[in-house]
Design a protein that fits this description.
Elements lengths: L1 H27 L4 E4 L7 H7 L5 E4 L2 E4 L2 E3 L3 E4 L6 E4 L12 E6 L4 E5 L2 E3 L11 E7 L4 E5 L2 E5 L12 E5 L8 E5 L2 E5 L2 E6 L4 E5 L2 E3 L7 E6 L2 E5 L2 E3 L21 E6 L4 E3 L2 E3 L3 E7 L2 E3 L2 E3 L4 E13 L2 E3 L3 E7 L4 E6 L2 E3 L6 E5 L5 E6 L1
Length: 366
Amino acid sequence: MRSARIMGSLLGGMALVAAGALVPASAAAKPRDLVVPTAAYPTIQSAVDAASPGDHIAVRPGVYREQVSIAKDVTLTGAGAKKTTIRAPQQLVTGADGLNSIVTLDHAAHVKISGLAVSGPGSGTCDAGALGAGIRVLGGAHLDLSHARVTHIQDTPMAPCFHSANAILIGALPVGTGSAAIRDSEITDYQGSGIVVLNEGSHATLLRNVVTGQKRLSTDGIEFVGAIGRIEENVVSDNACREPDPGCGTDFFNDVQHAGILAGGAGTVIAKNRLSRNQLGIYAFDTAEIRHNNLIDNEFFGMALQDGTFTATKDTIRGGVGGVAAIASAVDTTARLDHVKITKTSGDPIQTFECCGFTATVTAEP
């Protein structure tokens, strides 16, 4: 009996020791707060490199001239979009995608960024060292961006470089995906496009952002190419053809048009946005749920619907050459306007454009 009691005591003691040994490891696994700048972390990149998945990096007010590459799940918080800025350094290092970006998310990382600005300009040109993007999301990574600014994403001198200087670029063509939730942020003064989401499998939710184009260059505000998502309650303006741009024009079949929102695909929602002073307010392809948008003084049309089946519900369109354009170039296009209000256009409020044997049909319900 005595030996049994001793053995029980020994086993109990060993269990306690084992349980105690787990406490430090458990404590070490808790997320940490890393502060920049400090002696330990003088740069944002040094804090990212030292962070473990789940850690929080707090960035004090200041301007940080560096590129930041993130390949782990972390949270990055500044002191405010007007106080903390990550600015393009003089010399940009090219990323794995061949672009020079200021902040890059990769390797399926889930990254939260808030309360800071990402800013150019880049020091390169169209010929060498061009700035690719303000924030780049690829490799299946996810960006959660809020209360932030992405601005001055342009080269020196500013120029219309092809596929260059997009403020936020998500996914890649022909292969590569990414995703994002972007809300309550300001995207301005970009040389290419404001927010671009590329490729099937990529998706994004954009809520309550202000996206303002460059008034000297041709730009697009929000582009979904192959990707789908929700675009709601954003204010998008000043994206249009600028001179000189020989590819731009009003011919849907031979020219390029620039838009506040260019998107389409099953599952895409475009709702409650305010779009003004773009060449086209909304340019939709394939299909989309379009409702309750306010489209004001867009130069060409408030809404262009091409090669698909569409329903627009309770949108308001004012100004421009026309209100709604239905375009058929690859398949028959049908558009149903449900209580869409169109006023003060200089031409016919509803117009159709047909090519190559396909038809465009619009029905309007009062």
